[in-house]
Every structure is written in C-alpha cells, then in structure tokens.
Backbone:
C-alpha cells in the first residue's frame, strides 16, 4: 500500500523508554498530584510557585534523557518520506526535536508541539515566546513587558492547543494516520483519528496495549514503542 500524506500523533508513551514518566500510569506524573493544581490556568493563578516547581523539575530532568529508538525511527522515516509528513506531538519534551537534528528530515516534514514546550517560556502580557533552559521563579520578571511575568509555554486544560488550523488541514488531506503512545484521554488530540477516518485515511494505533479508543482504528500494533514503531515503519 503506498501513502503520500502522513500525520503521526505522539504522546507520553513514546518517551517512556527514554525515562520520561507518562501522565496516567500508576507511577506517572499525575500520581500524588491534583491535575487542577498543576495543569490549569486556575492552578497557576492560585499557586504559581507550585506550578513553576513542577515544570522546573521536569525541565531539569530533560538534561538526563535521550531520544530512543522510536524517536529515531520517526526521524529516519521523515528523512526518506517523499510526500507531506506532519508530526504532531502532545509531548512537551524535546526528544523529537533532538532526533530530527541528528537525522535531518526531507522537505515536506513539519513538527508541531500542540501542548507547548518545556524549553520555552511565554510573557503573560505580551505573549512573546522565548527559549528557556533554566529554572523559573513564581514571579519571573518578563524582559518583554514591564507588567508581565514569564510562565511555562505549556497548554493547560481549558487553553487552546497550538496550531490547530494547520493540524486540521493536514488531517483533512492525510491518507495515513498513526497514533503512538497516547491514551486518547485528552481532546482535541483524541478526536484526530475520527477526522483522519473522515478523510478516508488508513488509521493505525501503536501502544503498549489497546487503548479505550482502539476500535476507532483500522489496525493496532502493540508492544513497547522502541520495538513496535521501527517494526511498523519498516513496513511502509
Ligand atoms: C507506551 C509505553 C511504551 C506507556 N510504548 N506506549 C469533556 C469532554 C471532552 C473534552 C473535554 C471535556 N471537558 C474538558 C474537555 C477538554 C479538555 C479535555 O480533553 N479534558 C479531558 C480530561 C476530557 N481539553 C482541553 O482543555 C484542551 N483544550 C481544548 O480542548 O481547547 C478547546 C479547543 C479545541 C480545539 C480547537 C480549539 C480550541 C487542552 C488540553 C491540554 C492538555 N495538557 C496536558 C498537560 C500539559 C502538558 C504537560 O504538563 O506536559 O498535556 S494534560 C496531559 O495529557 C498532557 C498530555 O500531552 C496529555 C495526553 O496524555 P498522553 O500523552 O496520552 O499520556 P498518558 O499518560 O495519558 O498515556 C500514555 C500512553 O502511553 C498510555 O496509553 C500507555 O499505554 C502508553 N505507553 N509506555 C508505547 N513504552
């Protein structure tokens, strides 16, 4: 089967074997935390120090992890894919970015971090986004506006994910949609499979185990991402 326009959606499961915790596992990031406290604008307004500390810890942890065989298999596919290839990640880590720096993609490739990036910060008044590698304080002064503070460049619950129009255009034009390492618990990403089906695309789920939305996919490939992802891309 030959495909021209590919959309791949990734979630926390693709980075799990690099040592980045997922969210909803029993030992995951939400364990022992209330989601509303650390991943909503209301939680940030109530206790900015708690929220900044949560993201400071995760930003520091990024220095200790590396892309794994699944990130690299995606980068190798992007280097040889002749058509359109949109990689949409819900992950805020930079492991895809690093894999694509090692293996530069072909011209039709694009990467979107729809839930933001740990290594960027945003001014609350001007909206200016800048690279940010270190810790942030509760009232981190903004260099971009005298009354602004810098917050993590992260999409919290109730906020609009990034580049949705671009993503919807790609889903409307794709003929292969692959969802990797995501529970499908969070919208709008959880609805991408239906949009892709509506376009007539072949839809594939790759995960440790079938998710609650597995029946929405034409096919499933189950196992650790570092094995299942390279094996599936070898078939393309
Ligand atoms: C492996 C593996 C291995 C493990 N190999 N696999 C009621 C109904 C419907 C929707 C709503 C509703 N009420 C509110 C909403 C909307 C809301 C929502 O979806 N809420 C749900 C709780 C229902 N969504 C929003 O608010 C979003 N905004 C929005 O909708 O705006 C409106 C709008 C839409 C469209 C256009 C315009 C406007 C914003 C959502 C923001 C999500 N933010 C978070 C946290 C911030 C980032 C961060 O701190 O890192 O993003 S939540 C968290 O969940 C994070 C993740 O990106 C996201 C998804 O999680 P993911 O990646 O799926 O991780 P897990 O842990 O759930 O799953 C891991 C998977 O990996 C599992 O399946 C494992 O099996 C697998 N796995 N190891 C392969 N080795």
Residues:
């Amino acid at each position: 089967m030959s495909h021209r326009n590919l959309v791949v959606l990734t979630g926390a499961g693709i980075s799990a074997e690099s040592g980045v915790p997922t969210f909803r596992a029993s030992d995951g990031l939400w364990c022992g935390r209330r989601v509303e406290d650390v991943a909503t604008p209301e939680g940030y307004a109530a206790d900015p120090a708690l929220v900044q500390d949560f993201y400071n810890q995760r930003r520091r942890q990024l220095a200790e992890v590396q892309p794994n065989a699944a990130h690299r298999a995606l980068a190798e596919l992007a280097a040889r894919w002749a058509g359109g290839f949109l990689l949409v990640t819900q992950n805020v880590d930079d492991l895809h970015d690093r894999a694509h720096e090692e293996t530069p993609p072909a011209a039709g490739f694009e990467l979107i971090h729809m839930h933001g990036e740990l290594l960027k910060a945003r001014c609350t008044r001007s909206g200016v986004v800048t690279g940010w590698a270190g810790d942030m304080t509760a009232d981190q002064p903004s260099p971009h506006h005298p009354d602004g503070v810098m917050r993590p460049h992260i999409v919290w619950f109730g906020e609009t994910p990034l580049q949705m129009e671009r993503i919807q255009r790609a889903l409307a034009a794709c003929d292969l949609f692959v969802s990797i390492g995501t529970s499908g618990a969070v919208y709008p990403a959880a609805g991408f499979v239906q949009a892709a089906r509506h376009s007539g695309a072949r839809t594939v789920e790759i995960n440790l185990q079938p998710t609650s939305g597995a029946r929405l996919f034409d096919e499933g490939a189950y196992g650790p991402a570092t094995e299942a992802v390279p094996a599936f891309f070898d078939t393309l």
Summary: The chain has nine helices and nine strands.
